[in-house]
Design brief:
Number of strands: 19
Structural class: alpha/beta
Number of helices: 24
Strand order of the largest sheet: 3-2-4-5-7-6
Distance between the termini: 63 Å
Radius of gyration: 25 Å
Strand content: 15-25%
Shape: globular
Helix content: 25-40%
Length: 570
Amino acid sequence: MTEMTGGELLLKCLRQEGVTVLFGILDGSFNPFLAKLEEYGMRFVNARHEAAAAHMAEAYARIRGEPAVVIGGIGPGAANMVSGVVTAFAEGSPLIAITSQRRRNIIYPDRGGSFQNVDLLGLYRPVTKWSAGVREWRRLPELIRRAYREATCGRPGPVYLEIPEDVSRGTGDPATVDIWPPSQYRAGRAGAGDPALIARAAELLAEAERPVLHAGAGVSWSGAWGEFLALAEHLAAAMTTSLSARGVVPEDHSRYFHPLNRDALEAARREADVVLVVGGRVGELDNWGRAPSWGDSAVQKVIQVDVEPTSIGLNRPVELGIVGDARAVLAALLAETAKLCTPKIEHDGFAKYHALTQEWREQVAVTLYSEEGQINPGRMVQVVREFFPPDAITVMDGGNTSLWTATFNPILAPRSYLYTAKFGHLGTGLPYAIGAKLAAPDRPVYLISGDGAIGFNIQELETARRYDLPITVIVSCDRGWGMERSSQLFAQIGGMVECDLYPETRYDLVAQAFGCYGEKVEDPDQLRPALERATASGKPALLQVMVDPMNNLAPPGLLTFGSMVYRSGD
């Protein structure tokens, strides 16, 4: 039998996992598998920076709800990729990160002075769930299986495999290795957990007078948005989400309270007698589940559902902890709860919550004012949201720009929102948009980015053009680092220090130079026509929207966000 290279063996293993798209940047050590891509029905998306490639892969994973693969080169390529992998680690995204490495006789034992050699396992270990080096051709299938198992079990996350170039180029008899489909080595979806706990949780929910359901990102990964909403409807419960779980509840739902609508949200949580937390750990931006943002833990009963056992009771004590798949548990809870109570009606506390919500809307509406002829960043976001259909994928990136977007761009469908809610990594926006479009080619994808953030990966416009991906990029251009201007202003440091960008920068012309559609928008009335022209071009498009810098200093939610992050005593 013809022998097979390690590179081809890698492709064969990945194809068995259902992979059809690989992200990365070309490296000579990839040649053994590049030669076989077409044979295995695989596509290699070649980015312009390894970190951006990792961001693309993460977005692809999040939109499709499955692991994605990113591949980096030896040494510098692998080092470049780290910031993309650490973002996936923070966000809890299943990424199969693979890099080449120098030959085995060079990397061990290290003799010093070798070219492009670095301890990659040591580099990746702190930012992945699991990492390993392939040291023998025959063990590659085994280690790929382990990588997928680790990436998808419990809370998802990235894993890392280092493959020395002599293993990739080396050959072996394919008859001597076993490549198994996922069904033969990976457990399927976790079940609904302990039936006794499900029954007791259903009793608590049925008896609750003021229930609240809170969704974390696990609801999205499980595809449990339908079950989450159905249970909330049966209970007439208030609903909240973490920032990363936005979209699992349509944000125009009357009983949903936006993460920045803090008075109403915290009142609903604080006054709840029973809270069901699903697929989330109630972290820092949820004030760790503590009073007064939540109810007194000695009185308020919390039911926590998570596929990862170590997440139960991590930041707040619970009445019941149920280990299981969010979708399965919610379906079981709904069935049991329906036996115990008929559909409920809204309790009288909602009158206050709706009044607080109206006050919040009126407060944020004030921020939409601009001088005649100036473009208000919030109004810009509103026009963009109104232009695209409800199921369009929203990507946001930046500091103050993200706060404007979070406030005025409601998320109306599941898996239609991409942001680094846990890591806040600038520059993810454009790669995320590219990964999203590759994951869902039939859905519109638009990015709203600050001008500071777009500079991190603007070169990926060329990637979007090369692969003919008609995404729409809206750059909110205030000619500076907006959130740092706000920070320095509030800190009263005696002026602005290095907050300005070159004021005549033409991002739209950069887009045109990459073969994309580019247009500069300075008149508020021209934004919608510009969006029409951009989408009609059929190309990746960038609109440089010149927003009022003074307006941009104080987006709604700025003080709220700051108080969430910089609380004393935490």
